[in-house]
Specification:
Length: 191
């Protein structure tokens, strides 16, 4: 049996036909399937919980976008299949700090079972309580304020670099304070 393959690139003026035997086609298929398949790295999954206002919902979406663009991560709604846990906090809500530490207590149990799990706390409570979060929850890998979402990929990378360092010696807080600008500095500089 033979297979006819139409190949228009052989001759521009008149298309040529190439006849290939079925054995040759089969041999090509067997050869290509015998090559080792290229393994694709597993996609990391992010679970995020958002507290507070609509702005925090936007910031949570931004976190997912930044990690998706930089590391190809995808969102999951199942905490058990997540590689990264993020908590976007709000300091306006009642008992905000208590809620953060309560949730972190539950996440600690997951981290004990899966030491490679990355935990991050962002938002306003993280800005206000960054040092306290690291003292009370040293298993948290990243602490970041709402103004530093663009640095989340850098924090994630640092958390992997520091994986072998004891939690109390890790540096996970970056730029969580707001800049202090006097209210009328701009107006005075324009005179």
């Amino acid at each position: 049996m033979s297979v006819t393959v139409f190949n228009p690139r052989i001759d521009d003026d008149a298309a040529a036909e190439t006849t290939v035997t079925a054995r040759a086609v089969t041999a090509l298929k067997e050869q290509s399937s015998a090559q080792a398949p290229v393994e694709k790295a597993a996609t990391k999954k992010v679970f995020i919980t958002t507290q507070g206002c609509q702005m925090n919902v936007y910031d949570s979406d931004k976190m997912l976008d930044v990690l998706g663009d930089s590391h190809g991560m995808q969102v999951t709604h199942n905490i058990d299949e997540a590689d990264v846990l993020l908590m976007n906090t709000c300091s306006i809500r009642e008992k905000a700090q208590e809620k953060v530490f309560s949730e972190l207590g539950r996440w600690r149990k997951l981290k004990e079972k899966r030491p490679d799990l990355v935990i991050g706390v962002g938002g306003c409570v993280a800005s206000q309580e960054g040092d306290n979060i690291q003292k009370r929850a040293p298993y948290v890998d990243m602490v970041f304020g709402p103004q530093t979402l663009h640095r989340l990929p850098e924090l994630y990378d640092q958390s992997h670099e520091q994986r072998d360092i004891a939690p109390k010696n890790r540096i996970g807080t970056i730029d969580v304070s707001f800049p202090s600008i006097e209210k009328f500095d701009f107006c005075l500089s324009q005179e």
